[in-house]
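[step 3/7] fold_predict: job queued, chain A
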Amino acid sequence: MFDLYDTYPKRVFYVSLFNTTTLFIGLIYLTVIGKINYAPALQPYVTFSIDIQNFYLVHSSIYMVFYSALIIAALSILLESWNKKTKHIERLYLTDSLTDVLNRRALDKIKNEMIINGLPQDYGLIVIDVDNFKHINDQYGHFNGDLVLKHVAQILKDNSRVSDSVIRYGGEEFLLLLKNTNKEDCYHIATRILKALNQTPVCLDKKQEFIVTASFGIAYSDDQVFDFDSLFKVADQQLYLAKSSGKNKICM
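[step 4/7] structure written:
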């Protein structure tokens, strides 16, 4: 997906249209005075007096400028509309339809940028896995399982920073990507999310309420981690420790 303005900035269209208009007016002028045989329809003008030639030249130029202004206005409106549509399509393409957070395609885009630019410094990754999710689906049904996922996603969005990226990695597993952070901040944000989950019950379709818990694995970029896959591997190992040591906890 791309932004049309990034590929073809508006100034490119406007400069091109201005140059075309100027060239066209110049050709009209040269045709009227008989210097070139550009537009045969204008050739009769050269048989008129100089005043009549100038009259047609001025009016032709005015009309050309007027029509060019209309084209520029219409083009600007079309570009704005196109840009909004492409942004909307891109958002749908990169967003998980159930939870309204980023999806795996968005993660692939982020990883590709890291392949080009390298893993940023001061970068944290939190892997979050909903505890006992299969049991929730079996006991309450898949519809309520979806409500649980929406609930967890909302908790993640409400308790992370604007600069952080919340991603549904798959199933009941989420990722939280943290820019410009440190180990203490990673742990603090994970603790805040864990606390919110333990204090905010989810309401099911039959008005039942229960607490959803999750396990957290944290990794942080340092001299031992050179790319996203290595960072993810460390976080996933920490998640396994959290799961195997009782769940509903954070390991880093």
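[step 5/7] annotate
The first helix runs from residue 4 to 7.
The mean pLDDT is 82.
exit 0
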